[in-house]
Predict the structure.
Amino acid sequence: MTAQNTGSPPDSSVSNPYWSPVVQRLTPYVPGEQPRLSNLVKLNTNENPYGPSPRVLAAIQAELSDALRLYPDPNAERLKQVIADYYAVTPAQVFVGNGSDEVLAHIFHALFQHPDPLLFPDITYSFYPVYCGLYGIDCATVPLTQDFALRVADYLRPNGGIIFANPNAPTGCLLPLADIEWLLERNRDSVVVVDEAYIDFGGDTAISLVNRYPNLLVAQTLSKSRSLAGLRVGLAVGHSELIEALERVKNSFNSYPLDRLAMAGAVAAFEDREHFERTRQAVIANRVKLTAALTELGFTVLPSAANFVFARHPQRDGAGLMDILRKRGIIVRHFRLPRIDQFLRITVGAPEQNAALISALREILTGG
């Protein structure tokens, strides 16, 4: 395995004679901090500042009945139909799971265990190398350009699959749909997975291409644009044979991944398009204002199509800024990794949260 693991460094002092060798070697993914302190401005985990649709809450409430003693639908047929209708595909082209991380885990297990290495960017979602370690997948990272763009021509080499986030994480940079299609046309012998956790905040989904490219699989989540991080619902859309591979893994692992409440809430979230569009546009507008305010303070801000921005100040250390902000009750994300260790990933919050951040940064930068 040649990829740089972007999780935390392994603790060599931790071992146990009962652990299997693979567990001894694992470096688990480290999620963003979820502090239990009150009155924090929490801008570190890309949660949506706007709550879920009232229809979602009503649908969940309606499921709170004696029926909870019964197992849920193992095939989530109603939810798959709603997703299929939304994206103009068939239910056989839809897979659902307990958050997009579980969906991705099944993708790695079902589709990426091949002799040639899996390819993904050197700066990307840090769960990818973790899955490679878990499943023993050989992988290689492909460097982003100097301005953190993904260059699709760099992926035209023997591979056992390709995966990338679009918009990318943690940079927020978007790869145009035309570039994705260019890659698909020239890489027909292995699966290309586009991880679209943030696509609703500024890009066009690659789901529009799945009927033309049987090797394309698109993963999404309801955690971000539909404000359901606490419900844990993810999905994938692609050719029915790719979906069948995921179903085989799922039914060999956990045949009931989504509970009744999650399915009811997810259906309602897709059905309430007005709430989705209103809150999505609010986040986009807040991102524009936040980017402008940070730029005015001297930050370099990468162009973002996500619900976060990636920014650095030329005269201030990234880790130092994070620490100072935390002392003021504002939490942002910092990655101690090559090329990006001076950047902060800042979730686009509600207007009052963004204002608190900018006010604190202004005082810090001016010595206040």
Notes: The chain is about 35% helix and 15% strand. The mean pLDDT is 94. The first helix runs from residue 21 to 25. The radius of gyration is 21 Å.
